[in-house]
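Final report, closing paragraph on structural work. Over the funding period we assembled a curated collection of sequence-structure pairs, and we close with a single example.
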Amino acid sequence: MKKSKIFSSIGVVTAAALTLVACGKSNNSSSNGNDVKTASKFPAAVPTKATKKGGTVKIGELSASPFTGIFAPELSTMQTDTDVAGPGLENLFDTDDNFKINDKGPATFKLDRKTKTVTIEIKKGVKWSDGKQVVAKDIEYPYEITANKATQSQRYTASLADIVGLADYHNGKTKTIKGIEMPDGENGLKVILHFKQMKPGMYNSGNGYFIEDAEPYHYLKDVPFAKLMSSDKIRKNPLFYGPYKLDKVVRGQSTTWSPNKYYWRGTPKLDKIVIQVVSPDTASQALKSHKFDIINVRNAQWKQVKGTKGVNFVASIPLSYYYLGFKVGKWSNKQGKSVMDKNPKMTKPLRQAIGYAMNVNEVDKHYTDGLSFRVPTLIPAQFGDYFNKDSKGYPYDLKKANEILDKAGYKKKGKWRVQPNGKPLTITFLAMQGSAIQEPTVQNYIQQWHKIGLNVKLYGGRLTEANAFYDKLQKSDPGFDMFEAGWVLSTEPSPNDIYNEAAPFNYSHFVTEKNNKLLDEMNSEKAFDHNYRVQKFHEWQDYMNEEAYVIPMDNAYGITAVNNKLTGYSKKPSMNNTLYYDIAYAK
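Its predicted structure, as stored:
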């Protein structure tokens, strides 16, 4: 399962599995969400050349905070964890450039709408880095990890609960998952998933309805679920079936890899890969001094690095965005879903006015060289006709912001506006630490809100460290009213796993009948009709912009500098699953 991920720091977001990604910001903006021309300046891959064996590749991982080191996709939520585990991670399925699943990867895929099943068969010879064949139980076990409450996984969603019996297992009613069949036994190669209903997104990787990775049951079975996340078998000595095996972890700082001699596609060409965390503020100097062979470019530093010799620059527009969220409810562990406040402090007029007061285009233009852009909806333009090109989002309009507040009764009393009932209004903003431009960017927006008479203050009077930021967000700390975050998205366009009422990642905790209805409709049997599904996507985008529980802000071109002695590096979706296997030094 590809997961939505949280941006762990401000900077370029790598498009990997759909996982919640915490965000700091270093983006540039233009006036709309379909600004693809700049990306065409860059190729998506380095030149293809004849390769040789051997060599070490050093990769810089831009992050303002240490990585958490949870190397199990079912338990991890941070993009940095996915990135530093990249050489070992491999999805069960390869895809084409439109993210449609094919049979070229470690497993094959067959969907049967009549029987409401998906059959996954692992290929013989796909082995863990200890030499054991990946088997059916390894495909089934991630569902146990995800759905068992003792693991504290945030990956259990309403989408996964469409698997027959998974909700009963999650709620402790059964000890096994009825809808996961292993016809040849646990040591066979085939798994059949039985669903309550079939969904149109199931043909695409990252759909959220089934998990797209495996876990080594023979290795993890003795670890109690409650101790799995902290286990050395997850954090220090995990097994992978990808091209490289993990040799060393320097906690929060680096990972070191060597070839997995059991890798099913063949022996990888490099001798060693080292991935090391580097501060976004020193990234440009690290790039110019060739400290790393592969490193993402911070767009705010593009002018400083674009003339660097000995590198190839490749780029893509990642499936990601930053957003402003408003807390209008809280998570209920008892009900397993968000519960919205009856009278939220952050009312619709407040939310809308705050959105119109943000000068996103100006900020992005000032801090980057046209490499970031404002996005008008929560569906990226890369998703083609699912993106509503007619959506305007929240362009900068102070006059409109003031008019909305005046009409709603937020009158000025001195410098600041008060609530319609006459009581003082103070809004607390939770924002994450990041690069050097994060502080001035956040302060700019606070000043913009001050211009419309809103007394907005930073949580704790300062930016919050990334790991602490997401801890407060996930626990719905009562001390903040709104927040800025970001997502690396799934490669299937449905936003269901982020914004439905049972989604742990619905950090605003908004719940409405119409939102539930639209999400259900876009993922229904009827939505196998493409035109119908597109219509529902457009309706949902319009609805979300109108209600403004979450306001889309911007995205950025993802530029990577690659040592020009290397070949095989590509940002094409079809090459994602073989990226580390393909990277090599040219002859």
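The two ends are 37 Å apart (CA to CA). Residues 262 and 453 are 63 Å apart (CA to CA). We thank the funder for supporting this effort.
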